[in-house]
């Protein structure tokens, strides 16, 4: 069966959220992150200040507005893994699929955005927090799937989350080096292959369904 059509209220909510995010990003890039307030964003977007904070409780999330994919992506891939797939297999496959569809959560050719994130301590800290949350979500799924409450789920989650973090940082580096989008995605595919191959002997069979 196909997905249910999006309702009017859900579509309006999604469109408002996207509008706020787009306006905030433009203002941050024009004026600098620290020089823009939530009130500035609300005014420029033509919405109430509370509407902004309802969608983005933290100011930094106006910049890092794809946190859902960052936090839940690996855990979701593992929980939905196919018969015969291990945790590593699922995360590797999911990353390859994200590269193929040019997932916006993967650093692309927006150098101004990347410089803003890397040059703003609160944004760097929030990004690190999101990756830590992703690791915790993955560890919880692995523990639930395997029934193991010991070290292994946390250790495997840490290893896979470190690869995800490394790939994100490598993407940022390539963007700031001025590489074209196609080269960035091709390079990340090669780096991902190498990273997951290195983990394969240690955790390749863990949580195989």
TrEMBL record:
Key words of the record: DNA-binding, Transcription, Transcription regulation
GO molecular function term, any single one: transcription cis-regulatory region binding
SUPFAM superfamilies noted in UniProt: Homeodomain-like
Transmembrane intervals: none
Source taxon at top rank: Bacteria
Pfam families noted in UniProt: TetR_N
Residue ranges of DNA binding: 37-56
Domain HTH tetR-type: 14-74
InterPro entries, per the entry: Homeodomain-like_sf, HTH-type_TetR-like_transc_reg, HTH_TetR
Protein name in UniProt: Transcriptional regulator, TetR family
